[in-house]
Amino acid sequence: xxxxxxxxxxxxxxxxxxxxxxxxxxxxxxxxxxxxxxxxxxxxxxxxxxxxxxxxxxxxxx
Length: 62
Fold this sequence. Notes:
This protein is mainly alpha-helical.
């Protein structure tokens, strides 16, 4: 019983920490969105370059 109560307290603590982090995101939603969009653009560029490198290495012309 005591162990179960400790587990519940730990879960409540973790949930409260998650809520705290989410509230920071909510307060700074524009900055968060800009960071995600910028990261997405960089990832797409790297992905496209990788695909081109693979196509060139395999002599694929699509």
